[in-house]
Amino acid sequence: MMRALWTAATGMGAQTLNVDVISNNLANVNTAGFKRGRANFQDLMYQQVKTPGAEASAGGTQLPSGIQVGLGVQTSSVGHIFSVGSFQQTANPLDLAIQGRGFFEVLTANGELGYTRAGNFSVDSQGQVVTANGDVIQPAITIPTDALAINIGNDGTVSVDQPGGVATVVGQIQTVDFSNPGGLKLLGSSMYQPTNASGAAIAGTPSNNGFGAIGQGMLEMSNVNMVEEMVNLIAGQRAYEMNSKAIQASDEMLQTANNVKR
Amino acid sequence: MDRGFFISGVAGDMTGQKLNTIAHNLANANTTGYMLDRTAFSSILANVEGSGKDPSKLPASYMTMDHQFISDDKGIIRKTGNDLDFAIRGNGFFQVLGIGSDGVEKPMYSRAGNFHLDAEGGLVTEGGLKVLDNSGSPLVIPRGVVSVSEDGVVNVDNKQVGQLGLYEINSMKSVHKISGAVLETEKSNVQPAGKDISLHQGMLEGSNVNSVLLMVEMMQNTRSNQSMMKILEQYNQQEGQITQTVGRLPG
Question: Does A210 lie in the same domain as A175?
Fold first, then answer.
């Protein structure tokens, strides 16, 4: 049987995954803090048909170059692109956007720390600042019940206006960074977890030492570019079709061979 | 048995080999930095069998896979906006630390610029191979905003941290492909990149597979396979007639 059949099948498989990733990006085009994924492909191993340097004749001449036949393609990774998404003004005092590098640190329901850039926070029944999923921001910040207004500075200082014109500082938002954000593991809900590849979390203060400033009343939307995804979708679908044609061609050739003897 | 039987059979098999290469190229139509393979065929045994090396008296010759080309055409460069994506304009290659066929680490070459960082901040390729700087040691990028100039100088927060090594390969003939769009070649076959080669951050070079041409090649290949098989069929019929009719007594 022909290698081409399996080679083209790897191509179809890879393009299926490519389209999967693109559709996930498109589905999340309006998800706050979503970072688009990108499927990365690699050529598979090569089979040696002729080794370069092998003896070519009895006279001792050597082959200057060999022949390698490739076996197709594999997905090497689905990477997350951590470019900053577009900002949207919301005027909600607990919508926070990080303008630059950094992640919010939150305590997830299973007791582990999670990291997110989705800044659509709200206040729970105890007055704590929580994410849309109810995960408490770390270090925890409690908003007093009599607060009239919440002000969050560029450096993450949280202060509230209380009756009588008193302004009280109630907490400080910390952001963390990673040497390789691309190595973070995606937990879903725009939440990430560190891995060996991302390195450990480095804590910092917003607008300091390379950490992005906090923008209050703003949300970071997804960094998905609709047009780009659409173009990628077309390219992926066409590549899928071409690989299916290669399968068809190998099938036709095998059929022709079978028809030689009737 | 007629010699042509085997000649057409072998030629038919070679179209199958060619399709293998075409399918591999098509499978990698969307692989960053992939360089197209092309197999050249030639005839063998032409001057051996009874011709006395006179080309006009050649009885027949067999087809065989002769050698391979790796196309150094350029792929389409597209903008990605990712800080760790790089595209090379011109005939340059990144130098990465790969493991050679002898199991020893050695510099290898790639045009696939979709790099990542490892946990220590080292720049690595998609396949996890370390990317080397212009002095041949692995490049480490501290945390911060990365900007890379057209000649490969890497700045993090406006401080220079190193320079990406860019190289040219003299002859693409003595190059060996490794999985992951990486090429292995002798050190004598490379030289530092000239002035006409520039690096572009936030861009990626796709594969240099021209899918339209490949589809045409594939159709042509299928047809040539069919004609080979037709000839085989003719020989088969001929042999059949011989065995059926020769030696049969009429009446």
Answer: yes
Provide the β-strand partners of residue B117: B123
Q: What is the mean pLDDT of chain A?
A: 89
A203 touches chain B (CB under 8 A): no
Could you give the strand order of the β-sheet that contains B146-148, starting from the edge strand earlier in sequence?
A: B146-148, B153-156, B159-163
User: Which of B17, B22, B28 to probe by mutation at the A interface, max A CB count within 10 Å?
Assistant: B28
> Complex ipTM above 0.85?
no
Instruction: Say if A40 is an interface residue toward chain B (CB within 8 Å).
Output: yes
CB-CB neighbors (< 8 A) of A5 in chain B = 23
B141 and B153 belong to one structural domain: yes
**Residues A158 and A68 reside in one and the same domain:** no
Residue B65 tokens read as: 């896979």
Domain membership of residue B178 as a residue range: 77-205
Q: What is the mean pLDDT of residues B51-66?
A: 65
Output the six-digit token pair for A230: 């659409």
Question: Do B201 and B213 share a structural domain?
Answer: no
The answer to whether residue A242 neighbours chain B at the CB level (below 8 Å) is yes
B173 has pLDDT over 60: yes
Confidence at B58, pLDDT banded by 50, 70, 90 = low
Q: Are residues B168 and B237 in the same domain?
A: no
What is the pLDDT averaged over residues B227-237? 89
Residues B100 and B193 in one domain: yes
Same domain assignment for residues B155 and B85? yes
Nearest CA in chain B to A51: B176
Query: What's the pTM?
Result: 0.83
Q: Closest to B174 (Cβ–Cβ): which among A64, A83, A260?
A: A64
Looking at the predicted structure, is the pLDDT value of residue B89 above 80?
A: yes
Find out whether A14 and A237 touch, Cβ atoms under 8 Å.
no
CB atoms B177 and A44 under 8 Å: no
Q: Assess whether A207 and A120 both reside in one domain.
A: yes
Average pLDDT over residues A248-252: 92
Residue A67's contacts (CB-CB under 8 Å, 6 or more residues apart) are A48, A49, A50, B39, B65, B66, B67, B68
